[in-house]
Amino acid sequence: MSITVLDTYSAMRRILLAPVADRVGLLRSMLEPTRGMYRYHPGEIDLVAMHLEASGFPIDRDEQRCLDALETLAAAGAWERMQRALDDALAVLLEATPGLEVPDITVLFVLGDPGDEHFMGPCRGVTGFGGISGHIVITLWPFPENVERLEATAVHELHHNLRFGPGGVVWNPMTVTVGDHIVSEGLADAFARQLYGDELGPTRIGVPHLHDDEVFSKVLTGLDVTGMQNFTAWVHGDPSAERFGLPPVGLPMGAGYAAGNRLVDAYLAATGRTAAQALHADSSEIIAATVHRG
């Protein structure tokens, strides 16, 4: 059982300094350790195409801008900080959940695309994915706020990885609801807040709406929605839904994260548990602490 933060600094620097014709091959080699993340994806996966679609750094422009950003992250000790944070967070989760099964986890930390307006604007220059056991990918642009939150961002994704890992909560695409997704985001944020406090812990896109009762009430109306194509609007908000050609529902960016934080906080207050102890808590129990449906 180990967590490995890959040395993507060296790999990205090599890619960005290489002749354009060599960059696809070098990028594919860097991304190869993440192939297992797509094990449920039908058909053959083009890792380079997936990287570019997910706002990963470009390989045909903005080279100097990306190289400068890379040095900003290196100067901040980003990779070392992330490794230390994940190791420390794992120790907290193991203590809180005796018998927790932990797979080997590979962490790919990459620069985002400074030319992607949605990523740099509504997403605030950071996205993460930790829902597939054994793999975490964090895509980031080093805005000062993101560099400050590196640890919190990493442990948020670790919470997802172990919540949906071996012996944990089963994410069944046929039955999973918006409520399940929102609760998982709220728990991951609560775990980051448990370790790093209320200033650094919450995912940035949700912060503007944490105390917006109108947004919260609207999200509650969608908790039972199924069909993962519908989740983007309810969880991430209309700007992300529109980016991917999905129907909007009238919610701002990060609405589901804000609502998830409120649902989880009500549950933790009612039970006296920590977010680490609630790693595998059933989403219906968490929702019931706030929403009573007959």
TrEMBL record:
The domain of life is Bacteria
Any Pfam family: DUF2268
Lineage at the top is:
Bacteria, Bacillati, Actinomycetota, Actinomycetes, Streptosporangiales
Q: Which organism is it from?
A: Actinomadura namibiensis
Q: Which InterPro entries match?
A: DUF2268
Query: What is the official name of this protein in its record?
Result: Uncharacterized protein YjaZ
The DUF2268 domain sits at 102-287
